From TrEMBL:
Ranges: WD repeats: 1-39, 40-82
GO biological process per UniProt: cytoskeleton organization; regulation of cell shape; regulation of transcription by RNA polymerase II
Organism whose genome encodes this protein: Aegotheles bennettii
Keyword Repeat attributed: yes
Protein name as annotated: BRWD1 protein
Length: 267
């Protein structure tokens, strides 16, 4: 197998360069002379994450599709800490991305199973306030393409980037309380009534009908029992039909003789 470099990263002071190779080795090089200093052995699959510590030039973090996360001392060529991302009943989760915090005391990783892993010093009590499951209600909605081959949300027929900010839900599609909805960019300053999602019944891919978020409603609309998305759609459809009828009438009358006031007469 011909070795290929998959990732490359300089350390904090640019004295060292670390490369990840598809034979699962990490190589540490002197950036001034090009001399190979260390081979870092530990990964069992390809590595696509190399992160340097924000101020400690000795420290480099690596993570890969084998579920391993290593913190290395690249000046000595040794591993300082190791974590294996084992998920109960599902094997290991490949690690797709990692980032250090600006103070270098914490780092966060995301894996192939949708988990956010947070490492660092101190207690985890602040993070326990956040629900275990947080998804956008639009995360798994089907997409379609229009006649111009642009992507649209199948349910609303809108381009995804033009849709309103999504709601936060759990894995079953149940919305979280309003205090969590304000965490979504674009909803920080919304009034409470704009943070209450509209629920409806949606068929899953297995044919099971479940109650899920389908849009947004206000308290007034909720009290009146109205479903704004359906009513708005009916109003738009009626208006469209009226416009089409008006346009057809104008086309049929455009060739008719005019009366004294200049208004077309219909035959």
């Amino acid at each position: 197998m011909k070795p290929k470099v998959t990732m490359i990263a300089w350390n904090q002071n640019d004295n060292y360069v670390v490369t990840a190779v598809n034979n699962h080795l990490l190589k540490v090089w002197n950036s001034h002379t090009g001399q190979l200093l260390h081979d870092l052995v530990g990964h069992a699959d390809e590595v696509f994450v190399l992160e340097t510590h924000p101020f400690d030039s000795r420290i480099m973090l690596s993570a890969g599709h084998d579920g391993n996360i290593f913190i290395w001392d690249i000046t000595k060529g040794t591993k300082t800490k190791h974590y294996f991302n084992m998920i109960e009943g599902q094997g290991h989760g490949a690690v797709f991305d990692c980032k250090f915090s600006p103070d270098g005391q914490h780092f966060a990783c995301t894996d192939s199973h949708g988990h956010l892993l947070i490492f660092g010093f101190g207690c985890s009590r602040p993070y326990e306030k956040i629900p275990d499951q947080m998804f956008f209600h639009t995360d798994y909605r089907p997409l379609i393409r229009d006649s111009n081959n642009y992507v649209l949300d199948e349910q609303t027929q809108q381009a995804p980037h033009l849709m309103p900010p999504p709601f936060l839900v759990d894995v079953d599609g149940n919305p979280h309380p309003t205090k969590y909805q304000r965490l979504v960019p674009g909803r920080e300053n919304c009034a409470d009534e704009h943070l209450i999602p509209q629920l409806g019944y949606v068929a899953t891919s297995d044919g099971e009908v479940v109650e899920q978020v389908i849009g947004q409603q206000t308290l007034d609309q909720d009290e009146q029992g109205l479903e704004p998305s359906i009513l708005d759609g009916m109003i738009r459809q009626l208006q469209l039909q009226q416009d089409q009828r008006t346009g057809a009438d104008q086309e049929s009358a455009s060739g008719a003789p005019q009366n004294g006031e200049g208004t077309p007469r219909r035959g």
